[in-house]
Structures are given as structure tokens and as C-alpha cells.
Amino acid sequence: MELSRRTTLSGLSLGLVAACAGPRGVGSSIAALEASDEAQVTFDVFDPKFSDIVDVDAPARWLSKGHWWAEGPAWDSERQSLYFTDVPRNRAYAWKRETGISTFLDPSGIAPEQAQRKGDLGANGLLIGNSGELLICNHGKRCVEALDFDTGQRRTLAGSIAGKRFNSPNDLIQASDGTIYFTDPPYGLDGLNNSPLKELDRNGVYRLHPDGEVTLIVDDMTFPNGVALSPDERFLYVAQSDTAAPLIRRIATPSPSSSAIDRGEVWFDCQPFMHEAGGLPDGLALAQDGYVFLAGPAGVLVIDQEARCLGRINTGRASANCAFGEDGRTVFITAKDSLVAVRTKAVGLGRF
């Protein structure tokens, strides 16, 4: 394909960030970028329409660095905060424009002394739920949780199916009726599919009903990862982070009473867009008009409603996830060791 490239120098994040030591005794610190840092974001334009969706003339903002693997961004409109996780560090952070980065949850998953296994113990995907609670995919506890902001208490929403514990819930989305869809790859287990602690014979996609019932809706994806709903909630998009089959599956959302498994269709093949910087299809965010923002190879791919990739927000590194925030025209990207914000012309789905 023919590629044109536009480069913008990043802006600087606001506020200071506290230094934090890792839970395993590693003293690497989290910090805001200083004035001497000249990080860059570039835009790989595959179709001129890309510039109608992403503001290629606005400076990117690098908000935080020094993470081991940043994940799970979620925008909180009530508190005007962006929450994200560092999965192997077992922490979650909050970013505010006025104050910068602060530690939000430590541990984000399970305390190391309470864990009976190896593997990633921290939280992964986050989402502000319909009721205002923070929904958490907890690798360490192998469950989906809800956190009450007022009390700080967490409650388990789903931890098993048919008496077998989940692998390590990874990402989630909630429909307007309260139904939660989440993915369950083995990334939190030491040894992945070969872990002796793996109880399920699949890496599934699940539906959690508002009444607490859990239903398997996809059973044949190798490594289901990011998940998102179309604006009309008719379709579920699920990214598969498999080097042999990097793709997005599109699945018709099942009716509340249905227990059928619908394997859907391969909606987008990511293989032509793999990059030397690394990364696989991962987290997803959708704009109100249906554009799909896919975090993964070297940043975030922007895909139109007909599954055509229009361009890439190139962070120069494997990127795990993305979420819209602020006024709905900022996409926050967890880019390997960093958090970066890029302005868009498209408005994201969500509450802002």
C-alpha cells in the first residue's frame, strides 16, 4: 500500500508524578515527561479520510512513562480522571489534567502474599460501569469485579462458570441494559495454556447477565483480547492477539434468552498491518459514527465501518489499549511503557 507519513512533536503533560517502587522490589519510577524529552507520535496515512477522523495537526501529549506494561484505560467523566493499569507491576494509576499521575490502586489485583501462583497478579482492563462503579478485570483473582468509589470496597461479579475458575479476565464492555461482555485469555497464568492451574479447556468470550448468570458466547478464539460494542449494540467486536491469526471477529450480540454460540465472522485481518515495532491486536475503542480504534502493532489502527484501515496513530511501540476521554475528542493510548493522548475529530462512544 502507498503510505504517507506526518509527524507531530508531542506536547508536555501537566502536573508532577510521584515516584513509585515496584511491588517486586524493582525501583524504577513513574514520571511525567520533562521538557528535555522530545517524544514523537507519527501518523501513517493509508487513506485521506484518516485526517477527517484524527487531528493530525494537534500535538500529542505524552502523559506518563516508566511503566512495565500499561493497560486498561478508562475515562471517568464524573471525576474527570483517566484510570489505567500496569499489569505486571500490580498497580493502577489515575491521571488528571490538573495534577498528573497518582497511584490509584496498590495492589490493583491481588496482594503477592495472598497469591498461590505465579503469573501476572494485577488488574488489566477497566471500565466505568453504568452504575458509576469501576469494573475491573482482575488477573490476580481471576475474576470480574466492581469497585465502589465511595467506600473503596470491591465485590466479585463473576469468578467461575460451571464450577471452574476463569483463566484471567482481560477486557470488558457493558451494554445499555447492564449486560457485561468480557474476554478470558490465559495471559495472567504462568505458562499460559500450559499452566497447571488452568481449569477451563477454552479461552472464551462470556456474557454476564445483570442477574449474575454467566454464559459462554464464543469458544473457538485462541487468544481473545479487546472487546467493544458497536454504537447500536447489534455487534460485538473481539480482537484476537494471536501471531498466527491477528484479527478482529465481529459477532451478533445474542438475545437475553439465547444460549447459542455464534462464532461470527472475521471482520478485520491485521496481518498486513503488523509492524517491526511489535504488537498484536489488543484493546478497542469505538467512535460514535462507528470507526474502530484498534490498539496493537506500533500504536492504534483506525478502521472504518467497511473494515478498511485508514491509518495508524504510530506510537513507535506495541500499544495495549485505548479509550476516549476528556470532551470525547481525545483518545488515550497505553503504549507499552507510556500513556499518551492524541486529539481526534471523531467523537468517541461513552460519557464525557
Walkthrough of the structure:
Helix content is 1%, strand content 41%. The chain is mostly beta strands and 352 residues long. The radius of gyration is 19 Å and the shape is globular.
How would you concisely characterize the structure shown here?
With 352 residues, this protein is mostly beta strands. The protein has one helix at residues 50-53, and strands at 4-9, 11-12, 40-45, 61-64, 70-76, 81-86, 91-96, 100-105, 123-128, 134-138, 143-147, 154-158, 160-161, 164-165, 172-174, 180-183, 205-208, 214-218, 224-229, 235-240, 247-252, 265-269, 284-286, 292-296, 299-303, 309-314, 321-325, 330-335, 338-343.
Distinctive features:
single chain, 6-stranded antiparallel beta sheet, disordered N terminus, 5-stranded mixed beta sheet
The first-to-last residue Cα distance is 36 Å
Classify the oligomer: single chain
Order of strands in the sheet with most strands: 1-3-26-25-24-23
Total helical segments:
1
What fraction of residues sit in β-strands? 35-45%
SSE series: EEEHEEEEEEEEEEEEEEEEEEEEEEEEEE
How many strand units? 29
Global mean pLDDT = 89
Structural class per helix/strand content? mainly beta
Unreliable runs: 1-28, 33-38
The biggest sheet, with number of strands, parallel, antiparallel or mixed sense and barrel status, is: 6 strands, antiparallel
Helix content: under 10%
Q: Return Rg in Å.
A: 19 Å
Name the overall outline.
globular
